[in-house]
Design brief:
Structural class of chain B: mainly alpha
Number of domains of chain A: 1
Number of strands of chain A: 2
Largest interface: A-B, 141 and 148 residues
Oligomer: heterodimer
Largest sheet of chain B: 5 strands, parallel
Helix content of chain A: 55-70%
Number of domains of chain B: 3
Order of helices and strands of chain A: EHHHHHEHHHH
Number of strands of chain B: 7
Structural class of chain A: mainly alpha
Strand order of the largest sheet of chain A: 1-2
Radius of gyration of chain B: 27 Å
Number of helices of chain B: 15
């Protein structure tokens, strides 16, 4: 296990390099497993999985604690903070995602003991931090605009044959491939 | 045909939550369990590490496409099969609605954010949990970006609400049955996987490196399994349905005025109540705790934004003919007050008459109604001679969530 605060060069040294306890699942097997979890959600609940709305809810609750008036008078955010903003299915689900991720990382012996920054071999730490924050912010904005992210829209909506979800999914791949050559330094 | 695949043989018992098989405490427990399953598979797929995800966009390791497309095919085929044998009512599923342009633009922007950050929002949670600080930074970014959207909303609202197509599904648009489209997805998935593996080989050659480990046998087994399941779901199409499909009706269960009064008296925060009458009527008199529609939002769009953890009760003047637009998108349980506000006035606000024959059951029912009447009007109803008046027992308040 990489046990260092030093940034790892993921292409030259995979973070799990030397970890023989377990490699990643074969992607097709992982796809079946993920599909069965989503299927279980549809069979049990009648709706699918998600991620970004929980992050938005947490953000709106935090913003509401700082500046209640500004959020209460915002047509988009006000309904999120009416009542208990954490009493929400997706918030509980995302807490589960966090727990499940920790569980899998721990079971596989690749839970980082110290915070570890992943980046390409040529990217500086500062560059990586700015792009992680900036990319995250762009996704947070985009997910609200599209009413879901790769989890709640592309995966969940795609599986129940929603037109908007398929349009969204192709757009995500298109956007990624369009920008990838320009941020090559980050990863390659 | 063999019996297990006969449509209509099984009564649709799923989706369980939509069909009221359990309430929200169970729903919340399942939320966490399903989330754990989701997070666990994402981590094991290798999606907790940004370089693994980013490799997708440089043709080095197309695992994002493989995992996502396999998952979508699995769920679509699984639902086709379970729907085909009549065990899952596909019409009861909550299918995300389509707003074409906002979703196209949102997708492009999200894809750009994805390659910048190296994670999508869901995988950033798993990365943060695994101890990767770039994952945590991405998650912080997602939260900040959501707030930015909130403040930008007034100027974006027009675009955000544009090109609304409602529940636009591929079966509706193409006229093809779900099972046929699910089978098509399996075929398209196979094609895209073969292409992806070819791309991987091309770039591996360019890098003078090994392509990601040979997946062919696993790929063939997985897709073979999906193809068999898709074939079985196609077979269910050939068998004529034994029972004619029930006409589509709103997925709502009625609640009586007394039941509603009982729930509100016990814990007002256990449900959301929406008054679907005109804003003026609602402003004059309404059920305690009910939310009114406004002139600005006559369709009740705010309902969509409510946390979906509590049952939603909708009432009109009498029966509800049509749910407010916002309520049809509500993911939790939706219940309609039988008889509407008129029933509330009659059986809760109206003074209950003491029973003519004081049987134990009649007295018990009367006592409850009297107590509810007292609770909601502040006046006492006549007391049955044989019974001591009882106050409404307030249920223990649930802890405030998280």
């Amino acid at each position: 296990m990489a046990d260092t605060a030093k940034p790892l060069d993921a292409t030259t040294q995979r973070p799990d390099a030397g970890d023989t306890s377990r490699a990643d699942w074969n992607p097709y097997v992982a796809g079946i497993a993920l599909g069965l979890v989503l299927l279980a959600s549809y069979v049990l609940m009648g709706f699918g999985l998600g991620a970004s709305s929980a992050a938005a809810r947490v953000g709106y609750a935090a913003a509401h604690a700082v500046a209640p008036a500004a959020i209460d008078h915002n047509a988009y955010m006000a309904p999120y903070v009416a009542g208990n903003p954490f009493e929400d299915w997706m918030v509980f689900e995302v807490i589960g995602v966090l727990l499940g991720g920790i569980l899998a990382a721990y079971a596989g012996g690749r839970l980082m003991r110290r915070p570890t920054l992943l980046k390409g071999p040529r990217a500086s730490v500062g560059y990586r931090i700015v792009f992680a924050l900036g990319g995250g912010a762009l996704m947070g904005f985009a997910a609200r605009l599209a009413r879901g992210c790769t989890s709640g829209q592309a995966l969940t909506g795609g599986a129940v044959l929603s037109l908007g979800a398929w349009v969204f999914m192709f757009a995500v791949f298109a956007g990624g491939y369009m920008l990838a050559p320009f941020v090559r330094r980050m990863w390659r | 045909m063999t019996a297990p695949f006969m449509p209509g043989v099984l009564a649709a018992s799923a989706p369980f939550y939509q069909l009221d098989a359990f309430g929200y405490p169970v729903a919340m427990a399942l939320a966490t369990l399903l989330g754990i399953g989701f997070g666990y598979t994402l981590e094991r797929a290798g999606f907790s590490r940004a370089p693994v995800l980013a490799a997708e966009f440089y043709g080095r390791d197309m695992r994002v496409l493989k995992v996502m497309f396999t998952a979508i095919a699995t769920t679509a085929v699984g639902l086709a099969l379970l729907g085909g044998i009549g065990w899952v009512d596909l019409a009861a599923l909550k299918i995300p609605e389509t707003w074409l342009w906002p979703q196209l633009v949102g997708g492009l922007l999200l894809g750009m954010g994805f390659i910048m950050a190296g994670y999508c929002p869901g995988t950033s949670v798993v990365a943060a949990g695994s101890g990767y600080s770039d994952g945590l930074l991405t998650l912080v970014g997602v939260i900040v970006g959501s707030i930015v959207f909130g403040f930008a909303y007034p100027s974006l609202a027009h675009f955000y609400e544009s090109s609304a197509m409602g529940v636009a599904t591929l079966p509706k648009l193409t006229g093809l049955p779900w099972a046929v489209l699910a089978a098509l997805i399996v075929v398209v998935a196979l094609g895209s996987f073969l292409l992806a593996e070819k791309v991987e080989r091309v770039f591996a050659k360019k890098d003078a490196a090994e392509p990601p480990p040979g997946n062919a046998p696993t790929r063939n087994r997985v897709l073979g399994g999906l193809a068999v399941a898709a074939g079985l779901s196609l077979v269910t199409l050939l068998v004529p349905a034994k029972t004619p499909p029930v006409a589509a009706e709103p997925r709502t269960t009625p609640i009586t005025a007394t039941e509603l009064a009982r729930e509100i008296a016990a814990d007002r925060a256990s449900l959301y109540v929406v008054d679907a009458r005109s804003p003026k009527e609602c402003a004059t008199a309404r059920i305690p705790g009910a939310m009114c529609l406004t002139d600005k939002d006559p369709g009740g769009k705010f309902i969509d934004k409510l946390p979906n953890t509590r049952p939603l009760v909708v009432y009109a003047a009498a029966g509800v003919r049509e749910l407010p637009v916002g309520a049809s998108g509500y993911k939790g349980q939706v219940r309609v007050l039988a008889g509407g506000y008129a029933a509330w006035k009659a059986s809760v606000l109206g003074k209950p008459a003491p029973p003519h024959k004081p049987t134990a059951a009649a007295v018990k029912a009367y006592r409850e109604r009297a107590a509810l009447h007292a609770h909601f009007t502040g006046t006492n109803a006549p007391v049955v001679v044989t019974a001591k008046p009882v106050a409404v027992k307030r249920a223990v308040k649930k802890g405030g969530g998280c």
